[in-house]
């Protein structure tokens, strides 16, 4: 009987010490990692809480001629970025570098003054603009071709920049295939 009371006296203080130790150890569900290695679905980019779209160019702020911009992103709850020690981090995203040429201006010039080459002068092609001016838009056939080329965004500004088009506007993205493109066969092939 005596040994039983001795062990019960030792168990109670030991359990109390263990419980106190567990309470003092910080238990965190957050994991600190390099946020550039996150997979899709573990972050949202760009951060919707920040206004990262430039109202003048309708592209990401800080877009470079290399068509890349660094934007702030947010990781999901429970992930802490090692770079910033919080859930936000920066990531490089694709964008379209613009240099002041508006799509709607180029299209309107092509429709109404294309026979005089005003669209080509505006886009930075003075030689073609002068040729269109001298031949009355290649007898209006060149004007029609230019309207189609500008409307489909095949012809852009001469400096290689993109048109300024509203963010949810009629932007055409050309999808090209090369030797690394895999084409999935259709049922009717």
Automatic annotation (TrEMBL):
**Keyword set includes RNA-binding:** no
Record's GO cellular component terms? membrane
Protein keywords: Glycoprotein, Membrane, Signal, Transmembrane, Transmembrane helix
List each copy of the TM2 domain by range. Answer: 102-148
Q: Give the chief site where it resides.
A: membrane
| Keyword Transport set for record | no
What is the protein's membrane topology class?
Answer: Multi-pass membrane protein
**Places the protein is found:** Membrane
- What family does the entry list? Belongs to the TM2 family.
Give the protein name, as stated in the record. TM2 domain-containing protein
Source organism (scientific name):
Anopheles arabiensis
Give the lineage: Eukaryota, Metazoa, Ecdysozoa, Arthropoda, Hexapoda
